[in-house]
């Protein structure tokens, strides 16, 4: 393959976490367990909310969308890694790598936007309770989710299209367990200045912007809770957004930790290990956070499991 010529590229190699054969079964079992927990945990949330009419509210509508996105988010990376370990291969095709990168960026953006929409929902519920049903009507809820999909898909398409314009050198080894866009750009022989600028600008706009929106929503929520006279009322108001606040903190802290640790160590292997936190661990923990801290979800899960057990 000629240097700088990407017409002959057919595949990349995902180096993963370790090349030692004795560690592969442990890694396989570890990630398979986490993937199954993520899959069934989020699926239970979706089924429990869908099967109980009293949970057909904006908050739980957004929660089911988040659970669906978390399933897709994890399924974008983990199954391919498990399959490569199973067949003892590190290869991913060029088309497969680009596709994986597109869907990874798509579902990452959806996670961010849905968490922001859920923060707005809690803001309206606590700060404007008398107008909640009027403001958060089904039409607006559907529009917010649709806009989240459109913005995320457009951003992902832009990033992927720019990567498709790059030429690659002969070294096509990705020191990661999935096709992460920064790692792919580093393999390019082309000038990647524009790609990096778009990534940084998009990160500030599409991640930093929603984060500021979430902080603003919760500043208003805290301010409103302070004016509630009874301690019971304060506890009830805070408990309605405690689960969401926990998920937001987990997602943003792990994501920020990944980039800070990778910037500090300059180690691709360390970055791959740290990426497990927000790509696998966070989607796995989300169902537990919502079910353990939410009485309505716990009751719905118990009823759903009871109905499922009674069916022949």
Helical segment count = 11
Strand arrangement in the largest pleated sheet: 2-1-3
**Major sheet attributes:** 3 strands, mixed
Give the overall shape, derived from the CA principal axes.
globular
Mean pLDDT, as a whole number?
85
C-alpha-based Rg, rounded: 21 Å
Instruction: Tell me the strand percentage band.
Output: under 5%
Give the CA-CA distance, first to last residue.
Answer: 61 Å
Count of strand segments: 3
What's the architecture, going by CATH?
Answer: Up-down Bundle
Pfam family, one: 7tm_4
Family: Belongs to the G-protein coupled receptor 1 family.
Membrane topology: Multi-pass membrane protein
Subcellular location: Cell membrane
Keywords:
mainly alpha; 3-stranded mixed sheet; disordered N terminus; Rhopdopsin 7-helix transmembrane proteins; globular; 3 strands; 312 residues; 3% strand
Task: Tell me what you see in this structure.
The chain has 312 residues and is mostly helical. The chain has one domain (11-310): Rhopdopsin 7-helix transmembrane proteins (Up-down Bundle). It has 11 helices and 3 strands. It has a 3-stranded mixed sheet with strand order 2-1-3. Residues 1-7 have low confidence and may be disordered. This is Olfactory receptor. Keywords: Cell membrane, G-protein coupled receptor, Membrane, Olfaction, Receptor, Sensory transduction, Transducer, Transmembrane, Transmembrane helix. One of its GO terms (cellular component) is plasma membrane.
